[in-house]
Amino acid sequence: METPWHLYLMAGMYMVAGLMHFIKPKMYMRTMPLYLPNHKLLVYISGIAEILLGIGICFEATRKLSVFGIILMLAAFLSVHFYMLSSEKASAGIPKWILILRIPLQFFLMYWAYYYVNI
User: What keywords sit in the KW lines (predicted)?
Assistant: First the structure.
């Protein structure tokens, strides 16, 4: 079966998002829940994870593991999305309606990743 183009779109999306953790780390650190330690380290680790998982879904040998890694990562990021709804400062200036829409978007992204488990 030929690999669909949209799998590469997803891969690129995660790789770019991961790179942004290194280009604009302060943007990500502002959105980190206060109860999490060492925000800068967590931002860099999550950036590396996004890059590696984005690369991993491009190859049949690592696709399934990468898909489940993406799903777990997105589930972990839900805490950040809920935290951003907790106050004006935590929202990083993003309108509340966008923050609310990001929650179901996380579940759509999980479903989208799961679609590639058997491709």
Answer: Membrane, Transmembrane, Transmembrane helix
